Input
Amino acid sequence: GQNIDQPTEMTATEGAIVQINCTYQTSGFNGLFWYQQHAGEAPTFLSYNVLDGLEEKGRFSSFLSRSKGYSYLLLKELQMKDSASYLCAVRDSNYQLIWGAGTKLIIKP
Amino acid sequence: IAGITQAPTSQILAAGRRMTLRCTQDMRHNAMYWYRQDLGLGLRLIHYSNTAGTTGKGEVPDGYSVSRANTDDFPLTLASAVPSQTSVYFCASSEEAASTDTQYFGPGTRLTVL
Output
């Protein structure tokens, strides 16, 4: 079957760095997405990786290793507004998105 | 309208009743999707439409139906609601289906079936 694994919850301190991991097993691979979802709101797009390596976008970076079925989202200089759930999703061979359950990130002052 | 709108925002429904969740986008996206989100689970695809006039089944289609009469609208119907359909429902769209396009989400409908 298809499976996306990510930690259920993480806690970090304001101003620090946090890495959220995602491992996947899917039928085919056509890219990996990270979305941010604040409580009670819709998911919003953060990043997309289709080739191995690091994609940097401001305070957020995302890394992909296709051979290991692994990705991480790196958040730097954490701010209180970064408290949210972070969703990892993989586009499979049918171009459907398979979603992880999300990682709830709690930022403490 | 800017982006995707969904209606209603929330609804409490008696079991056995019929309910249609509405979704409209103004981005002229070809592909549209319906997901449900339950606590502890990832978003699960209910139905999708790659272009107006076509629809397909996702991971959890039972008990739901959709139609895509035009590019902008993609309603989701629960013919006879059951308590297990209590969930948050998100509509999403992307420019094309078979591409690397990002999916954009509507604000969601919180449905409770009693």
Notes: Chain A is about 0% helix and 55% strand. Chain A touches chain B through 23 residues (CB under 8 Å).
